[in-house]
Specification:
alpha/beta, Rossmann fold
């Protein structure tokens, strides 16, 4: 793929810990681009504050009472106004409509606390423990019109300890998320990948 110019938009609904990981990587010169907008559908989202402290423009829109496609079209417009080329979901608690996905084809990333395609959707860590898996992890994937079903970009395995709780496993998976999300963003921005069917082939790996 051809490299992007490096303009990133991040969507959050809550604390935005993965947003902070992206901001930190940008400050170290390791992101490969610049976060030009942080958007939230929740005006009180805690993740908006670190974005503001970092001097990153923020925007909020309330989705309640809005048709999904109408709301998503407005968000797409905001991102386009800021010249966003790559969209990163960081705890954005809404399933994107086809209107949104088609506006940024193969240019939306999401981070998920499991080794997809296992345990999509909510409570992935609890699902992993209940199924008795020995290894879980984190996945960065391209977003398509399904639920956590897009092509996988980067994964990191996290062993499940015998005494793990949802909280302890979630904490270790979150550390993995913070490592791999900036890495995935950089390789996307640098164009160091191509798609072969569902497979994301990364150059130099």
């Amino acid at each position: 793929m051809a490299p992007f110019a490096g303009r990133v938009g991040v969507l959050i609904s809550g604390r935005g810990s993965n947003l902070q990981a992206l901001i930190d990587a940008q400050s170290r010169g390791e992101l490969g681009g610049e976060i030009v907008l942080v958007f939230s559908n929740v005006a009180t989202a805690a993740g908006l504050e670190p974005a503001r402290r970092a001097g990153i423009p923020t925007a909020c829109r309330d989705h309640h009472g809005r048709k999904r496609e109408e709301f998503d079209a407005e968000v797409v417009g905001l991102l386009q106004q800021h010249g966003v080329e790559l969209v990163c979901l960081a705890g954005y608690m809404r399933l994107l409509s086809p209107v949104f996905v088609r506006a940024f084809p193969h240019r939306i990333l999401n981070i998920h606390p499991a080794l997809l395609p296992a345990f999509p959707g909510l409570d992935a860590q609890r699902q992993a423990l209940e199924h008795g898996v020995k290894v879980s992890g984190a996945t960065v994937h391209l977003v398509d019109e399904g639920l956590d079903s897009g092509p996988i970009v980067v994964q990191e395995a996290v062993p499940v300890a015998a005494g793990d709780t949802v909280e302890s496993l979630s904490a270790r998976i979150l550390e993995a998320e913070h490592r791999i999300y900036p890495r995935a963003v950089r390789l996307m921005l640098e164009g160091r990948y191509h798609l072969e069917g569902r497979r994301v082939m990364v150059e130099g790996v």
